[in-house]
Amino acid sequence: MLDSTILKQVSDVFANLENNYTLDVRTDASRTEAAELKEFVNDFVSTSTHLSANFTDTNDAQLSFSLLKEGQPVGISFRGIPNGHEFTSLLLAVLNADGKGKNLPDEMLVRRIQALRGPIRLTTYVSLTCTNCPDVVQSLNLIALNHPDFT
User: Residues 57-90: pLDDT tens digits?
Assistant: First the structure.
């Protein structure tokens, strides 16, 4: 699904990962997109020895995956097959979880995020034509990475 040029670029981006990450994938095998998601995830995790995948057939029309760091949920999930800005958000989610991403919050902002009262459960809907969506998604992902009860 991902061409060799993109796989090489992603491999270069993930060359310095220090922690292990799992994409915990939930699909309904009866959906035609399930095979596409599995192919995408397998291509994605092939870019680093620090990446792996766990596949579960849910039989409930689901097509999603969550990011785990060292086997623990980080509060970031994706629905469907990420492409375009969503693919960039996935790359940044892994990099930010590893402390190597961009726009990481400073210590004062991390304290403010951690002071939020939880649990907080948000679902973000994006439009491929929205110019603000990528920034919103990446900001919410950073909050999830810094607040144990925020997804």
Answer: 987 777 899 999 999 999 999 998 988 888 999 9
Measured between alpha carbons, how far is 21 from 84 in angstroms, rounded to an integer? 22
What number of other Cβ atoms are within 10 A of residue 12's Cβ? 10
Taking the C-alpha atoms of residue 121 and residue 32, their distance in angstroms, rounded to an integer, is: 29
The CA distance from 33 to 25, in Å, is 13
- The CA distance from 91 to 134, in Å, is 12
Q: How far apart are CA 121 and CA 89, in angstroms?
A: 18
Task: Supply the mean pLDDT for the chain.
Answer: 90
Residue 1 near residue 43, CB atoms below 8 Å: yes
Element (H, E) at 47: none
Asked if pLDDT for residue 126 goes beyond 80, the answer is no
Question: Residue 93 is encoded by which pair of tokens?
Answer: 């989610």
Distance CA 22, CA 120 (A): 23
Provide the whole-model pTM. 0.86
> Residue 108 class from Cβ within 10 Å (0-12 exposed, 13-18 middle, 19+ buried)?
exposed
